[in-house]
Amino acid sequence: MQYGMEITSYKRSRKVEKSEGVSKYKDYIEVLTYFGMAFFISRVILINNWTPFGMAFVVSMVLSRVDNIPIIAAAGSLLGYLSIFNNADNVPYYILALGSIIFGAYYFRNITKSKRLVLFVVILLIEAIGYNMFLYSNSAAGNIFSNVAEVICILPVYYIIQCAMLCLKKVNTKYVFSNEEIISITMVMALVISGTWGISFFGISLQNIITFIFVAVCAYINGSSTGACIGVAVGLIVGMTKDDLVMNISIFALCGFAVGLFREASKLLSVLGFIISFFILKLYSDSVLDFKLIEVLISSAILVSLPDKLYNILALEFNWERKSDVINSNHTEAMRDVFIEKLSSFSDILFSMSYTIKNLVNNDKLQLKNKSSALVENLADRVCAGCSMNSMCWKREIYYTYTAFGELIQNYYENRKIFPDELEKKCINKSLLIKNTEDIINNFINNEIWRNKLVEGRQLIANHLDNIAQSVQEMVEDFDANIAFKDQTEKYIKKSLEKAGIQFLNVFCMQDKNRRTNVKVVLRNSCNKEFCDNKLLPLINSATGLKMSIANYDDVGEKEQDYSTVVFEETPKFNVLTYVESECKYGENFNGDSYGYGKLRDGMYMIVLSDGMGSGPEASGESKAAVKLIEKFAAAGFSREIAVNTVNAIMTMKFSEEEKFSTLDIVNIDSYTGDLTMMKVGAVSTFIKRAGKVDVINSKTLPMGVLDKVDIDVIERKVFDGDLLIMFSDGVLECEGNSDLMENWIINYLEENEEDDIANIAKTIISRAKEVNNGKAKDDMTVIVSKISTC
After folding, report:
1. 150: closest CA among 120, 186, 125, 185?
2. Within 636-716, where are the H helices?
3. What is the percent of the chain where pLDDT is above 70?
4. Of 51, 84, 198, 384, which shows the fewest CB atoms inside 10 Å?
5. Is residue 148 within 8 Å of 194, Cβ to Cβ?
6. What is the pLDDT of residues 27-38, one digit of tens each?
C-alpha cells in the first residue's frame, strides 16, 4: 500500500453534469426573463409621452437583488428606451437616469433599502429638473411641476413591481396568494404586455391577442369576480397607453367576467361566452375599432388548445381556495405531531448511541490486520533468535521461511498438527518450534475468545438500541402527562384573532412541566417578524393575561412551508449571549475540544464543553461524540444526569489501551429564575464575575470513561444581570506548566478590568496563553465567555 497517495472517490459524474446543466439552463431563463420584462416595460408610453415604468422596474431590481440581475434589467431597459427614441420625449433623460440608478446601487449599497429609495427619488428629481431647465429655460416652472409629477409617479409603480416580484419568488411553493397579490402580479404582466405595442401581422395586433389570452386564463382559474377585477386592472394599464381608457377597461373586464362565469361548465363554453359577448358589444358600439373579431377568434383558439393540465397547475398555484384545500390540516393531526416529535427525538438518541457503538466496534476490527505478522514475529523471536541457521533462514530464504512459519501457525490454529516441508528440510529446532507454536496459539485463542465476547456484547447492545429505536417510532400513545392543554385560553385567543381579521388554521395553548404557558398559532398566510411583534403578540398577551414573547416563527416565504407557525412563550427574565474562541495545538489540524451552546425548549440555556484527552483527530472524535449525545438528550427534554451517564457508559467501552478519555463541563441557566446548575466531569475551574469579584468554581472529578459509574460534581449558583461566566479547557490553564499561575492571572485580569465585551475577554485569555509559550499553543485551547442580562 502506498501511503500519501490521493485516491479519487466515486462520483456519479453524469448526474452531476446533468444537474449543473439544468442549473445553467435555469440561470439563462432567469436572465432572459428579466431582460425581456425590462425591455417591454420600458417601451410603455403614456398619452402625455411619459415613460417612467422602466426606471421603476430597474429601481425595484436594484433594491431587491444583489446579483447581476439589476445590470441585466438596466441593459434591457436601455434597449427598450432606444427602441422608442422617435416616439417619446426626454429619452436621453431616461437613459441618464438609468446610469444614475446603477451607479447609486453600487455607491449606496451599504445603507438601508428605504434610504436608498429616497436617495434615488431625489437624484432622479434633480436630474429631471436640471435636464428640462437646460432644454426649456423659458418655461422652467411648468417643466418643474411636470418633472415632480413624473418622478412621484415612479413610487406607486415601484411598490407594485416590488410586491409582484416578491410574490413571483414564492411561485412553486406552498404559499397562498391573496387576491391583492394576484392583482399586483397582473398589473406587472399588463405593463409587459403593453410594451408589445406596434407589433402586428396583416393588421392583427399581437398586443390584443396576448392580453385576451392572459385575462381569459386568469379568469378561468379564479372565477368571474377575480377575472373581472383582473380585466379592469389590465384594461387600466393598457388603456393608459392609448386614447380610449374606458373602452379598454370594458372589453377586458367583459372578457374576464364571461370566461369566469362559464368556467364550471367547460373550457369551450367559457370561450364561446366571451366570443358572443364581444360580438354583441361590437354590433352595438362603434368605439370598438381597436379590437377585431379575428383577434378574439385567434385568442379563443389558443385558449381551447391549451391542455387542462396547464390550467390545473396554474389553479393550484394562483387559486387560493384550491391551494388552501390542498395544504389544510386539522386539529387532531397537529396534536399528534406534538407527541410524535417527542418520540422521534428519543428515537434519534437511540440511533445515535447505536451508531457510535458500531463505529467503535469497526475501529476494533481494524486492529486485526497486524495480528498475523505479529504472531510470526513472536514465534521467530522465541525460536530463531539464537539459532546458528538464522542468517540462512531469515536473510537468504526469508520469503520461504516467513511463508512456512505462517503455514505452521495456521495448521496448529486449525488443530492440524502438520509440520511444513520447508521447515522439515532445514529447521534444527523442530521440537522447540512446535512447543512454542502451541503456546502462542493457545494464548492467541484465549485472547480472541475474550475479544470476541466483548465485540459480541457491544454489537448486541447496538442491536438492542436499534430495536428499541424502531419500536419507539412505531409507538402511538396518549399525550405526555407533563403537558396540560388550556382549552379556555385557546378559545379566548381564537376569538381575538377572528375579531382582528387574522386567518388561522389552529391554535394550541399548553402548560409544560414547569407550569409555563406556551402558545402555538398556525396561520394561513405568510408571517414576518414585524407582523408578529406589532399585531399578533399584543393579542396573545391580552388573551392569556401574561407577558409573552416570540420563541420561534417560520415564515412561509423564507421556509417554503405550506403554513406559517408562530410559537409564543412566557417572556424569560434573563438573556444569555455567548462567544467562543478556540485554538488548535501547535502543529495539529484538529482541535480536541468540542463545544455547544444554545437555548432549549424548556427555557434552559445550555453550554457544553468537552476536552478530549490529548490532541488530534482521536481526541476530537471523543469530545465531539460526547457533546453531540448531550445535546440530543437535552433537546429531547431528558435530564442531564441521564445524558451524562449514558455517554459515560459508551465511553467506558474501551477497545484498546491507547484510547483517550474526555472531560465534560455542562452549564444550565434557567432563563426564567436565574438558577445556574453546573455539572463537572473531570473539567477545570469555571469563573463567575459579578460586580468586580470573581467566584472560582473548582472540581476534582475524573474524566468520562475512567469509571463504570460517572463521577459527577454538581454545583448550583444564582446568576444576575451583568454576570459573566467564563469556561475553558485545561489547555488554557496549563500553558505555563502550573495551572495556578494562569488561573491567578485570569482572576486578576477579570477583577482589575471593567471589560464586558465577551469577544475581547475570550481573545485576551487565548492571547495570554499563547504569549507565555512563545506565541504557540501548547495544547488545544477553548474559552467560552457568556454574559447574562435581563430582558
Report:
1. 125
2. 640-651
3. 82
4. 198
5. no
6. 788 888 888 888
